[in-house]
Amino acid sequence: MVNPSAIRREPLIERVRERILREYESLRTRLVDESGLLVTTALDDSDVEKLVITALDEARSPVSWRELKAIFQGVVGEDRLRRILNGLKARNVVAELTHTRYSLPKYVPEPEIAKVKNPVVLRQLMEEPSDKEGLN
């Protein structure tokens, strides 16, 4: 049986993946050596971090690990993606929520603030006035 919430998120994941692929193409370096062979360099970790932040910003909501794997398929391997996410979590750039979901702190839904696993991000979210209040 297919999860109904997964069906509703497919267009979002496809849109985020398209944006990441465009960004990926712009970040890759292509070199042509003397023999005419095209060589493409791999992205360094800072570029992958930018892509992860871009994906989470484009999603504007928590994204599951499974969705992130689908978004980055063919761009970044699972182990490297996990390592990059752990580094971003350690620097409190990314919030990890329950059920292995990730989000930029500004996109953590208010009802889910208590589900944030990074203590520093949780504390920041609890202390800061909501941006949504300022918009009303």
Question: Can you walk me through this structure?
Answer:
The chain has 136 residues and is mostly helical. It has one domain (4-135). It is built from six helices and five strands. The protein has helices spanning 4-27, 45-59, 65-72, 78-90, 119-127, 131-135, and strands spanning 30-32, 38-40, 63-64, 95-97, 101-103. Strands 3-5-4 form a three-stranded antiparallel beta sheet. Strands 1-2 form a two-stranded antiparallel sheet. It is elongated and about 60 Å long. The protein starts with a helix and ends with a helix.
Helix content: 40-55%
> How many strand units?
5
In the predicted model, the low-confidence regions spanning at least 5 consecutive residues are: 131-136
State which percent range the strand residues make up: 5-15%
Rg is 17 Å
Shape: elongated
What's the story with the biggest beta sheet?
A: 3 strands, antiparallel
Number of helices: 6
Strand line-up across the major sheet = 3-5-4
N-to-C SSE series?
HEEHEHHEEHH
Give the terminus-to-terminus CA distance.
41 Å
Determine the structural class based on helices, strands and strand pairing: mainly alpha
Mean pLDDT: 86
Total of domains: 1
